[in-house]
Amino acid sequence: MKTSYNLTKILNLSAPEAAPRLLGWELVRSTPKGEIRLKIVETEAYHQADPASHSHRGATTRTAPMFEQGGRLYVYFIYGVHYCLNIVTGPKGSGEAVLIRAGEPIDGVELMRKNRSITDIHKLANGPAKLTQALGINDTKLSGEVLSELSISLKPPATKITRSDILVSSRIGIKRAVDELLRFSIKDNKYISGV
DNA sequence: TTCCCGATTGTA
DNA sequence: ACAATCGGGAAC
Predict the structure, then answer these.
(1) Is any atom of strand C within 7 angstroms of residue A57's beta carbon?
(2) In angstroms, how far is B6 C1' from A53 CA?
(3) Protein-to-nucleotide distance from the CA of A149 to the C1' of B2, whole angstroms
(4) Which residue ranges make up each domain of chain A?
(5) In Å, how far are A4, A39, A150, A164, A180 from A101, measured between CA atoms?
(6) Which of A57, A81, A119, A141 is the most exposed, fewest CB within 10 Å of its CB?
(7) What is the dotted CATH code of the domain comprising A7-186?
């Protein structure tokens, strides 16, 4: 029996509902230098009622994309050094997004190695800022963009991820709402973040 | 306009 | 354990 996937449906869910459902999807990044493909293996959800979320105090210039209709990208600059990539979810007006924390390299591995200046395939995208480095994202230009074949798009999972394949845990690197179980990863996957 | 600190990473 | 290094946003 064929499994059907409905991306639009997932992107219209709240971030906590969408985050586990995005595991296994393949993130495809098109660049002039070639195509990069990563299997999403770790995500975190951030929503408006969540004090740890950038959207918690309402929309600002930076966080405006989080309040758009699901299906856009939200890219932010952090620690004066790094960029992180989110997929915006939910209806227009609700400030929520799913942080893509780690990916398993599927295609464009040599390009990622070049972007990251390392060779170990397990460390190419096993962290939110490592993942953007691997994808060649060095600015916030993509923030607010709609998912598109021309930049970044999502393709259905090659193998189905079921509830029992998913590990739920607390989010990394935050100081508020630390007990919320909003981090999702594929159990036993070798490409999740080290922390 | 000043000031604090972060959804991280790589090195010491 | 800690520096790197910047801009968002709260506070003054």
Answers:
(1) yes
(2) 12
(3) 43
(4) 7-186
(5) 25, 11, 22, 20, 17
(6) A81
(7) 3.10.300.10
